Amino acid sequence: MAGAIHPVGTGPSMPSLSDVGALLRSAKTVVLTTHVNPDGDGIGAQIALCAGLRRLGIKVLVCNPSAGPRRLRFLENRLPLLPQAELPKVLTEADLVVMLDANEWSRTTVIEPLLDASTVPRLIIDHHPLVTTAVGVALVVPTAASTGSLVHELLTTMGVATDLEIAQGVYVSIVSDTGNFRFSNTTPDVHLAAAEFLRLGLRGHELYDRLHNDRTPQKLRLLGECLQAVQYHLEGQLVIIPITIEARKRLGVRPEELHDFVDEIRLLEEGEVFASASELPDGRIRFSVRSRDRVDVSALCRAFGGGGHVKASGAIIEGTMQQAIEAFVTSASTVLPLPPQSP
Ligand SMILES: [Mn+2]
């Protein structure tokens, strides 16, 4: 994989894959965690790293700040999940804590104070652009398509051959973060890894169905209502799908089911930036933002205290739906509309 490995915080500078491999190998017990509301990449990377470390005889436990969405439950249930109440005791015996798919410990929310109360060394494995200094050794490679891809490369460096369990975890990471091989982070390496996994016997089409075919009649009705309320701003280059909490509750749809509403409007022929704006129980508005190609939406989201990837980011904005949308449109108007692209 091309791309530098950047150091963060107080860890040794510039850890190489083999440095990080040696750190993992030196541990007898490792605790894995990831960001709140874990996604397919976080859980997929945990599945792969857990399987790889166990093959080396390392004891692995997983403690996440919250459960993943129901469509990932079949994978999550295979992890050695530890109740949060038991984490302090486990930390007294653990040798290393590894946070996957996040590079700020605050992303572990309720887990963070438990870690802060312990002296266990920490490791970060992630591919989000660096934003802060964080405690611990950090393997942060923004050019990696997914955190699972980075774990795959790390395990290969450590001499752990890819088995079907590792393959499934990494594959779920890849399809989650590349939008099923559609986004611009779908590198040749991503396809080569997928080919390796299919040869191992991975059934990609079955995983796809389990991950994506989660729609209920209620969700379809909500999607229909929201699609009728889609807004076009800045000469049609910013498209927003508002999701009111009233409609979501009236139709009985769970918050986690809104994750792909933004993908529906990204299918539009025109537009540069696409956002779903969903009302939270506390009245704030959660923006999930995608860029077609030319706009860095992580910068747009950072202006509101959020962040993420250049082409897929999120933020929570204060105010009513209308106020939040106005604030977002105003912010986006500094970069949109873009001039037409030369053919
Ligand atoms: Mn990721």
List the SSEs and their pairings.
Layout: H1 17-25, E1 29-34, H2 40-55, E2 59-62, H3 73-76, H4 87-91, E3 96-100, H5 112-116, E4 122-126, E5 137-140, H6 147-157, H7 164-177, H8 188-199, H9 204-212, H10 217-228, E6 231-233, E7 238-243, H11 245-250, H12 261-266, E8 273-279, E9 285-291, H13 297-302, E10 307-308, E11 312-317, H14 321-332
Helix pairs in contact: 1-6, 2-6, 2-7, 6-7, 7-8, 7-9
Bound molecules: manganese (II) ion (MN).
Manganese (II) ion (MN) is lined by residues 41, 101, 127, 146-147, 177.
Task: Summarize the structure in words.
This protein is of the alpha/beta class and 343 residues long. Helices cover 37% and strands 16% of the residues. The protein contains 14 helices and eleven strands. It has helices at residues 17-25, 40-55, 73-76, 87-91, 112-116, 147-157, 164-177, 188-199, 204-212, 217-228, 245-250, 261-266, 297-302, 321-332; strands at residues 29-34, 59-62, 96-100, 122-126, 137-140, 231-233, 238-243, 273-279, 285-291, 307-308, 312-317. The strands form two sheets. Strands 6-7-8-9-11-10 form a six-stranded mixed beta sheet, sandwiched between helices. The chain has a five-stranded parallel beta sheet with strand order 2-1-3-4-5. Helix 2 packs parallel to helix 6 and helix 7 runs antiparallel to helix 8 (188-199). The longest helix has 16 residues, at 40-55. The protein is globular and about 55 Å long. Mean pLDDT is 93; it is low at 1-12. It binds manganese (II) ion. The site of manganese (II) ion has 6 residues, from loops.
